[in-house]
């Protein structure tokens, strides 16, 4: 049985080596609960010929995470393994990564697809020694497993589908995207965010320093008109906002209630619920998976305000669609 190392070499699977790697990351954890040998035994049980060392780390992290209900130290160990794995797979030099992001090309077409704005790239190249030395990569180990995997899944930059950015590099990128050539302020922001005194909202973490620096979090809209044109023009606005990770709140007070007369067709309205479901399912095409829920609001005096049973139908319909964004429907009033 052999494993493939990160440099491509083959090596026989060694239980003691797996145990030693896990033991090294168990510092400060309760030994009465966290046993590196037992975790290694479970990891070895999942080994197959040709497994990579990176996959072994992922398996070890997941194995530890599954046991976090027994003791919280397992979650800490899982995070340490996952962070260590990312560090072994990525470049620690911030300026080198920024250069890779700036020169990024589409994997299939070869067309230029820079992930970093030109002005941010120039600033980093001009101050690279100072910026490279400012990053403290060990702070990545302070994330818990859930927090780190959330960053890895949706916030850290990828190139050709592979995560190539570390959390500390993301934080410094965000700080530079905000402060640009004000290096002193950028480094101050980095220090505060890195030490978890505060964090920025999702759009800022996504877009700061990129060619499209859309950093606004919340957009409040009103339904333009109770008509096909008005509803779909509003949907277009929502799609453009959602594309760049903005959160959306929509006032829908002017949508007519169920069974209201429609003069143009001599028919009756299906009410607010189908309109909400339409917006939710259509937005799934443009929504980034990590963004927050959308909210729709109605006043309690509105005839279109759903009953409890119809609200449940709306929420249930939305939740059953695994690709749709979550829906929050609020009735606003005294």
UniProtKB/TrEMBL annotation:
Keywords: ATP-binding, Deoxyribonucleotide synthesis, Nucleotide-binding, Oxidoreductase
InterPro entries xref list: ATP-cone_dom (IPR005144), RNR_lg_C (IPR000788), RNR_lsu_N (IPR013509), RNR_R1-su_N (IPR008926), Rrm1 (IPR039718)
E.C. designation(s): 1.17.4.1
Record's catalysed reaction(s): a 2'-deoxyribonucleoside 5'-diphosphate + [thioredoxin]-disulfide + H2O = a ribonucleoside 5'-diphosphate + [thioredoxin]-dithiol
Record carries keyword rRNA-binding: no
Gene Ontology CC terms: ribonucleoside-diphosphate reductase complex
Domain ATP-cone: 1-92
Keyword Iron-sulfur tagged: no
Name of a matching Pfam family: Ribonuc_red_lgC
Matches recorded under PROSITE patterns: ATP_CONE
Gene Ontology molecular function: ATP binding; ribonucleoside-diphosphate reductase activity, thioredoxin disulfide as acceptor
GO biological process terms held by the UniProt record: deoxyribonucleotide biosynthetic process
UniProt superkingdom: Eukaryota
Family of the protein in this entry: Belongs to the ribonucleoside diphosphate reductase large chain family.
Primary role: Provides the precursors necessary for DNA synthesis. Catalyzes the biosynthesis of deoxyribonucleotides from the corresponding ribonucleotides.
PANTHER family per the UniProt record, alphabetical: RIBONUCLEOSIDE-DIPHOSPHATE REDUCTASE LARGE CHAIN, RIBONUCLEOSIDE-DIPHOSPHATE REDUCTASE LARGE SUBUNIT
Name the UniProt record assigns to this protein: Ribonucleoside-diphosphate reductase
Organism field: Phytophthora nicotianae (Potato buckeye rot agent)
